[in-house]
């Protein structure tokens, strides 16, 4: 019988999963944090997600989240909109576009 400790086997499995995920993210041209942001937006967009919600969830400052969202928006993964009934407050609500949804399906499949 193989004498390899179970902890080494678990570590090997986790490393393989991480490498596979990193490879897939590289193909999609997104960082792990961008992928998490897309998934968060998809999971919470029905209630009207604003940038501050994402900053709170990821415990990041507004400038970091702004940069993250600009990158996703420029690649066509998300879009930010101001609803017609919310023009006074100018709150931008985030929505995931089709490319973002497809990417997250691929990532979650891993």
From TrEMBL:
<feature type="domain" description="HTH marR-type">
    <location>
        <begin position="1"/>
        <end position="110"/>
    </location>
</feature>
<protein>
    <submittedName>
        <fullName>Transcriptional regulator, MarR family protein</fullName>
    </submittedName>
</protein>
<dbReference type="InterPro" id="IPR036388">
    <property type="entry name" value="WH-like_DNA-bd_sf"/>
</dbReference>
<dbReference type="InterPro" id="IPR036390">
    <property type="entry name" value="WH_DNA-bd_sf"/>
</dbReference>
<dbReference type="Pfam" id="PF12802">
    <property type="entry name" value="MarR_2"/>
</dbReference>
<dbReference type="InterPro" id="IPR000835">
    <property type="entry name" value="HTH_MarR-typ"/>
</dbReference>
């Amino acid at each position: 019988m193989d004498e390899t400790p179970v902890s080494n086997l678990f570590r090997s499995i986790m490393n393989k999963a991480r490498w596979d995920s990193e490879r897939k993210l590289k193909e999609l041209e997104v960082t792990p944090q961008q992928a998490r942001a897309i998934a968060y937006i998809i999971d919470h967009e029905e209630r009207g997600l604003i940038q501050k919600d994402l900053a709170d969830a990821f415990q990041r400052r507004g400038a970091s989240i702004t940069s993250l969202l600009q990158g996703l928006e420029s690649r066509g993964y998300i879009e930010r909109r101001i609803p017609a009934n919310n023009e006074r407050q100018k709150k931008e609500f985030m929505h995931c576009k089709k490319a973002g949804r497809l990417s997250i399906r691929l990532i979650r499949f891993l």
